């Protein structure tokens, strides 16, 4: 547990006891993921090429138990690309339903900032086959990710984070 998380827990006091033992284990558990929207000076988006699915994706990944989404985003970008960058502000929180074999997810998109495309990136060979700098409209991605990234680009210009469900803005 990092020092920030430990200080959050310390400020909260002791854990709350269950009134009905075992209820917490029976509650639904969602997968949480965090990704970074990294752009180059021309506005192209940095996509990773996973070796375990047919579509491009954002740098990022699954949030570990007890890990804040922003810390997971920074850790995943470092693990996947060898790039240690502070996590910027939240752009989008998007829920996606489960589809076999995946459970439903809450996905956070953070501002990864602007990066020179000549930056030395080292894609993790165990999960990526490379990276691509592409305009959003040229990326081969799932429709829900396209919608989510469109919302993230909107959030960049408005300065307001957006709540979405399967890439559709929630009103």
Q: What is this structure, in a nutshell?
A:
The protein is α/β, with parallel strands linked by helices and 171 residues long. Helix content is 25%, strand content 28%. The protein has a single domain, classed as Nucleoside Triphosphate Pyrophosphohydrolase (Alpha-Beta Complex).
What does it look like?
By secondary structure, this protein is of the alpha/beta class. It has a single domain, classed as Nucleoside Triphosphate Pyrophosphohydrolase, CATH 3.90.79.10. It is 25% helix and 28% strand. The protein contains four helices and eight strands. The strands form two sheets. The chain has a six-stranded mixed β-sheet, with helices on both faces. A two-stranded antiparallel sheet has the order 2-6. A hairpin with an 8-residue loop joins strand 4 and strand 5 (105-114). The protein is globular and about 55 Å long. The protein starts with a helix and ends with a strand.
Second-tier CATH architecture: Alpha-Beta Complex
Strands, total number: 8
Helix/strand-derived category reads: alpha/beta
CATH class: Alpha Beta
Cofactor: Mg(2+)
InterPro entries: NUDIX_hydrolase-like_dom_sf (IPR015797), NUDIX_hydrolase_CS (IPR020084), NUDIX_hydrolase_dom (IPR000086)
Protein name: NUDIX hydrolase
GO molecular function, one term: hydrolase activity
